[in-house]
Amino acid sequence: MMDIKTYNVIAKEGLAEFPTDLYTVNQSQKPQALLIRSQDMHKTPFGTNVLAIARAGAGVNNIPLVQATSAGTVVFNTPGSNANAVKELVLTMLLLASRPVLDAIPWAHKLGGADVSLQTEAGKNHFAGSELLGKSIGVIGLGAVGSRVAKAASDLGMKVIGYDPYISVEHAWQLSNDIPRAESLEDLLAVSDFVTVHVPYTEKNRHLLGKEQVEAMKQDAVLLNYSRSGIVDDAAVLAALAAGKLRLFISDFGTPALVSHKKVIVTPHLGGTTAEAEVNGAKMAARTLRKYLETGNIVNSVNFPTVEMAFEAPLRLTLIHQNVPNMVGRITTILANYNLNIDNMINRSREKIAYTVIDMATVSAEQQAELTKELLHIPEVIRVRFLKNPRA
Ligand SMILES: NC(=O)c1ccc[n+]([C@@H]2O[C@H](COP(=O)([O-])OP(=O)(O)OC[C@H]3O[C@@H](n4cnc5c(N)ncnc54)[C@H](O)[C@@H]3O)[C@@H](O)[C@H]2O)c1
Ligand SMILES: O=C(O)CC[C@@H](O)C(=O)O
C-alpha cells in the first residue's frame, strides 16, 4: 500500500484515480507522495519518504525545487489543465475593464418607483463604456494560458502582439501566424492598450514589470496580472497610478494596498478556479503520480528529465543519482557482480540530476535489499527503488 497526502481542496474525481487496493489517502504520517495545489511547501516540511509531489496546476514557485531535487523527490505539475479557466477570467476582466457594469448594476438595482425606465435612460450615460474591437493587447508569455488569451483576444477583433523569447515548439505551433511577436518587452509595452502577463514566477521574472516597464506603457493602459504575485512590482504600479499613469490595474493577487485602491480590481486568486479546471488538474496530477509510483516513468516533471520506457520485464530498478560521469558503468558493474542480465535500460539527465531505469528478470526480495544497500553505497546515488511489474 502507498499513501498519498493531500493539501488544499483536491477534486474527488482526482482522488478516485487511486485504486483502494493499492493506495490510501491521508492515512499515513509517512506518505509516499503529496498531491497539492497552492500549499506553501517552503514552509511545509516533507521527509525523504516523499518520492514525488504533484502540483495540480501550473505554477510551482510554492515548492522548494532545489531541495526536492537533491532529496530525490520528483515534482510534477499539470500543464494546461487550468489554462482555459484563466483565459476565460482574463476575457471577463478585459470586458469589465471596458464596460463599467460593476458600477452600473448596483446603480440599476437602486432605482425604484413607476419611472424606472425614465431614470434608466436619464442616467445610463454615466456608464458608457468602450469596445475591445480594434484595441491593442500585449500578451507576455505565450504558453498554455498566454497562447489561449492571444487567440481569444484576436477572435474578439483586438490587435494582439505577443512576447515570449523562450516559447516552446508545441506552443509556437499552436499560435496563429497572424499574431506578431515583439522583439522586446519594451516594443510590446509601447503599443498596447492592455497588457496581460502569463509567465511563471522565477527569480528572473521577479518584477518583470517594474518601474521602468510601467513607465514605458501607454498613459491610459490597463495592466492585468493573472500569473503570480511578484511578477508585477505592485509598488511601481501604485506609484504610477498616483502619478496619473495607467487607467486600471487588475490582479489575481491582493495586498492591503491593492484591495483598497479605487483604480485596482482584485480577484481572489481565481484564475484556475473552475469546477472543470479543478477536476482536470486533480485527475492529471493523480495519473502522473500513479505512473511514476507504479512504473517509475516520469512525465510533466519540472525538476527531473522525462523518462518513458515500456515496462515489460518482471522487475524494474530505478536510480536517482547525480549527473556525473561513469554512473551507468558503476551501477551495471554491481548488477554484473550479481550475474544479473539487463533486459532494457534508459538513462536521462537534467542539469545536475540523472535518472536510470533498468529492466530485468525477477530477483528475490533478499537480493533486492542487498543490491539496494550496495547501490546506495555509491556516494552519488540518492534513491533506489525496485518495482514489480504486476502484468509480468
Ligand atoms: N491565477 C491563476 O490561478 C493561475 C492559473 C494558472 C497559471 N497561473 C500562472 O500563470 C503562469 C503561466 O501558466 P501557463 O500554464 O501558461 O504556463 P506555461 O509554462 O505553459 O507558459 C509560460 C510561458 O511563459 C514564457 N516565459 C517565461 N519567462 C518569460 C519572460 N521573461 N518573458 C516572456 N515569456 C516568458 C515561457 O516561455 C512559457 O511559454 C504559471 O506559471 C502560474 O504562475 C496562474
Ligand atoms: O490551485 C489553484 O487554485 C491555483 C492554481 C494556479 O495558480 C496555477 O498556478 O495553476
Write structural notes for this entry.
The protein is an alpha/beta fold. The protein folds into 3 domains: 1-81 and 275-304, Rossmann fold (3-Layer(aba) Sandwich), CATH 3.40.50.720; 83-266, NAD(P)-binding Rossmann-like Domain (Rossmann fold); 305-392, 2-Layer Sandwich (Alpha-Beta Plaits), CATH 3.30.70. The chain has 14 helices and 15 strands. The strands form 3 sheets. Strands 7-6-8-9-10-11 form a 6-stranded parallel sheet, with helices on both faces. A 5-stranded parallel sheet has the order 2-1-3-4-5. Strands 13-14-12-15 form a 4-stranded antiparallel sheet, covered by helices on one side. Strand 10 (248-251), helix 11 and strand 11 form a beta-alpha-beta unit. The chain is elongated. The two termini are 19 Å apart. Bound molecules: nicotinamide-adenine-dinucleotide (NAD) and (2R)-2-hydroxypentanedioic acid.
Total helical elements:
14
Topology as a string of helices (H) and strands (E): EHEEEHEHHHEHEHHEHEHEHEHEHEEHE
How many distinct domains?
A: 3
The chain-level structural class is alpha/beta
Lateral arrangement of strands in the main beta sheet: 7-6-8-9-10-11
Organism: Ligilactobacillus agilis DSM 20509
Pathway: Amino-acid biosynthesis; L-serine biosynthesis; L-serine from 3-phospho-D-glycerate: step 1/3
Keywords: NAD, Oxidoreductase
Family: Belongs to the D-isomer specific 2-hydroxyacid dehydrogenase family.
